[in-house]
Each structure stands twice: as structure tokens, then as C-alpha cells.
Structure to design on (367 residues):
């Protein structure tokens, strides 16, 4: 093998023929001579592995330095990658010299994949990993298997309705739990922090097949897309969101919205409709909304025939009509002295029976 002038090298020792190995959601079954990868861009990368395809995938984040050599060892006993073992200076220099001289069998990083990976993962940093219970060079599992939690798996920021009720504090329940999610997002964490977690959840889902990561990604997308007030205040943030969603969904199969995973309570479809409804009337976001709609139409066949996000929003308003159906659904929960909005706020805060009807009523009211 010719001498290399790489961006970064990854040397993986002691691998087993037939095991599954991947980087940045690109996966191979290893042959007997595999010893690593060359031409890796600097920054964070996600390695995945599974011993012979027998066990589920696990992952490990590494931070590559331009011109550097990163080393991982396959731990046969524990069936995982180990990047924490310390090499002596002599061992490290010998390994680097062999790699740079072309003495090792290194495969190229997947062609044209660096740009794809950067589009979905460039915002993720070490602080994001640490917030979510992940560490560099430490293997972790997908999490969420049969409700069990292990030490080596992601911990996501709670954004379910119970967590939101705990965060409300003295804020008026009607405005806090209403269609505009800006207050709920602000009470959870800084938008920039949650955007990075959204990106991390997607790559963990994509690379490890983690259902828990998929659900967190869906929840965060729905939360961001419902932030009407925040969109007006921080349009650049939501331009980045539209670009990120486009890059993420470009990696999803064409049947994603028909598949059981993508269809899960139609969370994502509803989130995109929220984004179009909230962004279409904002000059700095209308182009981003139109671009995301055009991508969804071309890639997934969604909402065909609408020339723009504003046209889609107007058509849906005409199709759905008034909120009479939601009123009928909600009236059976009204207590003496309550109007429908007061009833909806109470039901959302309680989180039990009537929660779905209350959310539907407030969303219809705001449409």
C-alpha cells in the first residue's frame, strides 16, 4: 500500500473476520486483513460495531485531529472497541510510522460521505455528548431495550408532558401548554443546546437503530416546529433547523413516512405541518419552509400539488374548516365556571384523560 498523506488515520487492531464495523452510519463486514481507515475528516465521528452480527450494534465516538492517528483495539473478551488503553510513546510512534508508511491495510473513508456526515453531525460537540451521558472513546449501547437502562447508554433531556408540567412554574397554563411551544422549549434548555441534542439523537438512531433515540428526535423536532414566537425572534436558528431536517431526512428511506418507525403516531408529519404553518408567514423563514416542503414532496411524495408552504397552509385551513369538532370533543370535560380554553389548559396540565382532545382544540383555535 502506498504511503498516505491523510486528513486523519484510524488504526483498529485485533479485529475478527466477519464482524460488523462502521463509521458515521456506513457499515461493512470485515475481512481478515482490515486494520483501519484513512482519509478521515477532523472532528467527531461515530464508530459502530457488532461481533459477527450476533449481538446488537454498539457505538463509540472518537475525535479525530487533522494529520493525527487514532487507535482503537477490538477487545475479544468483552466484544467491544477499546480506545482507552494507553500506549507508550514508542508504541505510538511505531504505529504512526507504520500507518503513514503504508505498511497497514487501511481502507478509505467512504467516498463523498464526509459532506453528508458534516451536514447531520457538525453541530454535535463534546459538551453535547457529556450532557447525554456519553464519553469519547467509551462504547455505548442504543438504550431503551425493554425499558431497561444501563450505565453505558444515552440519557436524553425529558421533553414529555410530565416533564413540561414540572417546568411550568408560575407561568399561565393556557399559554405554557398552548399551541406555541416557545415557553416550553425555553423552560427546558437553551435552544442551541437542544438543537445539538436533536442532531445527536438522529445520528444515534441512524447508526445504532435506537428506538429511544428516534423518539427523542421526534419529540424535539415537534417541540421546535411548534415554536411560533421563537421563530419570529430567532429566524436564523430555524433556518438551520430546516437545513438540518433536510439533511437528516435525505438519509431516511423513501418509505420512511409509511414505515412503522417513521409513522409512529405521525409525530414527524405533524411537526413538519407545524413548521410550515409557523414559518410560512415570516419573511426570513418562508424560503426555508418552501425548500423543506419541496424536498418532502420530491423525496417522500408528501403534500403534492402545493407550490409553497403558504399555499399548503391555506389549503389545509380550508379543508379543516372551523373548530366545531374539537369543541364537541372537549365539552364533556368542562367543569362549572370553565370556558373551553380554561378546560383545555386544565386537561393539558393534568395530562390524563382528555389531554389529546385539549391539544387538538388549542391547535385548531390557533390555526
Amino acid at each position: 500500500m502506498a504511503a498516505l498523506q491523510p486528513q486523519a488515520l484510524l488504526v483498529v487492531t485485533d479485529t475478527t473476520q466477519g464482524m460488523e464495523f462502521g463509521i458515521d452510519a456506513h457499515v461493512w463486514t470485515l475481512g481478515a486483513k482490515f486494520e483501519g481507515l484513512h482519509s478521515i475528516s477532523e472532528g467527531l465521528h461515530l464508530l459502530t460495531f457488532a461481533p459477527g452480527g450476533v449481538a446488537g450494534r454498539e457505538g463509540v465516538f472518537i475525535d479525530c485531529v487533522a494529520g493525527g492517528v487514532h487507535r482503537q483495539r477490538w477487545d475479544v473478551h468483552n466484544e467491544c472497541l477499546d480506545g482507552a488503553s494507553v500506549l507508550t510513546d514508542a508504541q505510538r510512534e511505531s504505529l504512526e510510522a507504520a500507518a503513514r508508511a503504508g505498511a497497514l491495510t487501511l481502507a478509505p473513508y467512504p467516498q463523498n460521505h464526509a459532506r453528508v456526515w458534516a451536514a447531520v453531525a457538525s453541530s454535535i460537540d463534546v459538551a453535547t455528548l457529556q450532557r447525554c451521558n456519553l464519553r469519547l472513546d467509551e462504547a455505548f449501547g442504543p438504550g431503551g431495550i425493554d425499558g431497561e437502562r444501563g450505565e453505558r447508554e444515552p440519557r436524553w433531556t425529558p421533553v414529555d408532558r410530565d416533564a413540561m408540567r414540572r417546568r411550568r412554574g408560575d407561568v399561565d397554563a393556557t399559554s405554557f401548554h398552548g399551541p406555541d411551544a416557545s415557553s416550553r422549549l425555553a423552560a427546558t434548555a437553551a435552544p442551541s443546546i437542544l438543537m445539538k441534542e436533536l442532531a445527536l439523537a438522529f445520528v444515534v438512531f441512524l447508526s445504532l437503530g435506537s428506538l429511544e433515540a428516534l423518539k427523542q428526535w421526534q419529540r424535539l423536532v415537534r417541540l421546535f416546529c411548534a415554536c411560533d414566537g421563537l421563530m419570529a425572534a430567532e429566524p436564523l436558528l430555524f433556518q438551520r433547523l430546516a437545513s438540518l431536517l433536510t439533511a437528516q431526512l435525505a438519509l431516511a428511506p423513501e418509505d420512511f413516512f409509511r414505515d412503522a418507525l417513521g409513522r409512529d403516531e405521525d409525530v414527524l408529519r405533524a411537526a413538519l405541518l407545524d413548521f410550515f404553518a409557523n414559518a410560512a408567514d415570516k419573511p426570513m423563514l418562508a424560503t426555508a419552509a418552501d425548500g423543506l416542503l419541496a424536498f418532502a414532496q420530491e423525496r417522500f411524495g408528501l403534500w403534492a400539488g402545493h407550490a409553497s408552504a403558504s399555499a399548503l397552509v391555506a389549503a389545509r385551513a380550508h379543508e379543516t374548516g372551523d373548530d366545531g369538532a374539537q369543541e364537541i370533543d372537549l365539552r364533556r370535560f368542562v367543569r362549572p365556571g370553565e370556558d373551553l380554553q380554561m378546560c383545555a389548559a386544565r386537561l393539558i396540565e393534568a395530562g390524563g384523560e382528555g389531554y389529546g382532545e385539549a391539544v387538538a382544540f388549542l391547535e385548531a383555535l390557533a390555526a
The CA atoms of residues 322 and 364 lie 8 Å apart. The radius of gyration is 24 Å.
